[in-house]
Design brief:
The protein is mainly α and 140 residues long. The chain is built from six helices and two strands; from the N terminus they run αααααββα.
């Protein structure tokens, strides 16, 4: 059950990141990658190399990964990755999660509007993204 929930959250983060990049005309591949990086924190905690998930749920990590991408792949890829990362942090801020966005300093408690494991929340975000994407396709 837990794996299914994490896959749903990852799918939601990927859809929102892709949609934002598409609207802003950024690299969608890097946006999806950026949107999925924060979700890797739980996997890295359970497998051992990471002790605290807050490291990946912060603006410092977003900046680090964006700068690394900028140095390796250029400005457009970096903007896409940062957009996706920001979308993921935005989704997390709507949940009950504690977000150390200013890690290593204190963070803040999410708004508590939704549970990140709630299928209705995740499906609603995906449906919204699909509506936006199909609307974008009709304009062109």
């Amino acid at each position: 059950m837990f794996v299914t929930q994490k896959l749903m959250i990852g799918l939601t983060q990927a859809f929102l990141s892709y949609t934002a990049a598409k609207i802003l005309d950024y690299d969608e591949t890097y946006a999806v990658l950026g949107g999925l990086i924060p979700g890797l924190s739980l996997f890295l905690i359970y497998t051992g190399p990471l002790q605290y998930e807050g490291v990946l749920l912060s603006f410092i990590s977003a900046g680090f990964f964006s700068l690394t991408t900028y140095l390796i792949s250029g400005k457009e890829a970096s903007k896409g990755l940062f957009t996706g990362y920001s979308c993921s942090l935005l989704l997390e801020s709507l949940t009950f999660s504690y977000l150390p966005v200013f890690y290593p300093f204190t963070g803040f408690q999410g708004l508590g509007l939704f549970s990140s494991f709630d299928p209705l929340f995740n499906l609603s975000v995906i449906a919204f993204c699909l509506l936006v994407l199909t609307g974008q396709g009709l304009k062109n």
